[in-house]
Amino acid sequence: MKVSVVIPVYNGEKYIKNAIKSALSQTYQDKEIIIVDDCSTDRTKQIVEENFKKEIDEGLIKYHKNPKNMERSYSRNKGVELSSGDAVFFLDYDDEWENTYIEEMVKFLDRYDIVYSVPQTFIDENGSIVRVSRKYVPDDVGKLVFSGYIGSPPATGFKKSSFLGYDESLSYREDWELFIRSYLKGLKIKVLKNNKVKVREHSGRSSKSNIQMLKNTLLIYEKYKDYVPKEYLHYFYFHVGDTCLRFGDLPKGWKFVLKSFKNRDILTLRNILTLLKRGFRIDKYLRLKLYSS
After folding, report:
1. What share of the chain is helix, strand, coil (3-state, %, to 5)?
2. Which of 43, 44, 142, 219 is most buried per CB count within 10 Å?
3. Which stretch of DSSP H or E encloses residue 132?
4. Cα–Cα distances in Å, from 134 out to 6, 7, 193, 262?
5. Which residues are within 8 A (CB) of 264 and not within 5 positions of it... i.e. 6 or more apart?
6. Do residues 23 and 106 lie in contact, with contact meaning Cβ atoms separated by under 8 Å?
C-alpha cells in the first residue's frame, strides 16, 4: 500500500525541515511526500529546495504552492488531490513522528477506513519533551468522537477512498468535524494509544486561544445536534459547554453543561475538576464581552 504524506505549511521556515525529515525517516518505505505551501511569505520554499533537492528530483517529494492563501483545510484537500497513494497521512509542518509511526498505523487500513494515534507527547520549540499526557482516553469510538477527544490531523491516516475531505468553510475544528461526519457516515475508525506523535507547543500554534475555535465549535453543534446518537448526546453537550467555558462564554457554557448532566455518566471526577477550573472565570467572560462588542 503506497502512502502519501501531506504536509500543509504557511510561513513554516522554522520547523518545516524537521517535519520533512520526520516523514523521510519513516521505516515504512512505499511513500511520497507532498508539501502544500499556502502562499508563504518567508523562506519556506528556499529551505525545502536547499535541503531536499535530491528527493525532489527523484519525485519522492512534490512541492505545490497555492496561488494565494487558502487556509489549511484547502491545503490538505489539495494535497490529497495531488497524491498517488492508496492511503493518506497528514503531518503539520511544526509537528513530528516517531520513525515507526506509519508502519504501525498503515497495517490497520486493510480493515478500517481511518486510523488514529492519540497524541500524548508534547515538545517545545527546540524539540525537547515538555510533557507526556496521561489524559483518560475512552475505548468507545463514539464517545471519543462526540467528546471532542479526536481529530488532530498529524495523528490521522485515511484510506484514500474513504477520505471525505476537510470542510473548507471552517478555519478551526475542521479536524473534529471530519471525524463526526465520517462516524455518522458509518466509516470504521481504529484508535491506537501508541504514543508515536510529537506535537509542538509554541507561541504561533493556531489552536491555543483563537476565539474562532469557539465560534466553529458552535457551528458544528448546530450542524450535527439532530444527528448525534442518543447515547452520546450528553458527551456532545459537555464538550460544547466546556469549550464555551474555556473561552469565557459562561452563560452558554453552563447551559450546555447542565443539559449534559441529565445523564449521570458525565459526572466524573475529571469533568468536575474541569468545571471548577473553567466554570467561574469571570475575567475570561469580561474579555469575551469586550472582544465581541
Report:
1. 45, 15, 40
2. 44
3. strand 129-132
4. 28, 27, 11, 28
5. none
6. no
Q: How far apart are the C-alpha atoms of 292 and 260, rounded to whole Å?
A: 26
CB 38 within 8 A of CB 10: yes
Predicted confidence (pLDDT) per residue in 40-95, tens digit: 999 999 999 999 999 999 999 999 999 999 999 999 999 999 999 999 999 999 99
Quick one: angle between helices 16-24 and 44-51, nearest 10? 40
Sequence letter at residue 105:
M
Q: Which residues contact 268 (CB under 8 A, 6 or more apart)?
A: none
CATH of domain 3-200: 3.90.550.10
Element (H, E) at 21: helix 16-24
Rounded to two decimals, the pTM is 0.91
